[in-house]
Amino acid sequence: MSKKLLVRVMAVLAQVEIEERYVNGGDKEMVHGLRWPGKIVINPVPAIVDSIVHECLHEIFPPETHSDRAIRGMTTKIVQKLSDDEFKAIYSVFKSRTKPSP
Ligand SMILES: [Zn+2]
User: Fold this and answer.
1) How far, in Å, is the centroid of ligand 1 from the Cα of 43?
2) Distance from the alpha carbon of residue 75 to the mean position of ligand 1, in angstroms
3) Ligand 1 centroid to 54 CA: how many Å?
4) In 15, 43, 74, 99, which residue has its Cα 20 to 30 A from 4's Cα atom?
5) What is the pLDDT of residues 10-54, one digit of tens each?
6) How far is the CA of 72 from the centre of ligand 1 (A)?
7) Whether the predicted pLDDT of 76 surpasses 90
């Protein structure tokens, strides 16, 4: 991405109304965000749950036998099958167990 485009993105970020909340994607894939003119909604749950599953799989499978690519593949398979309630449950555990950064 060009620096100029990034500057424009940052300008929009500074101006647009932003809401952070869970968005139910229904039967379709998880919704990461929505947009209306002048307003964006960001759902952090899918990205965070994806990272949680990925890193926990690294805890289970050693790097000697499981490449990052293999872990990514397993992550995708697990996350694709998660129900709305499972997404929320994993995110909830994450929020309750996360230490604030120093
Ligand atoms: Zn990894």
Assistant:
1) 22
2) 10
3) 6
4) 43
5) 999 999 999 999 988 776 678 999 999 999 999 999 999 999 999
6) 7
7) yes
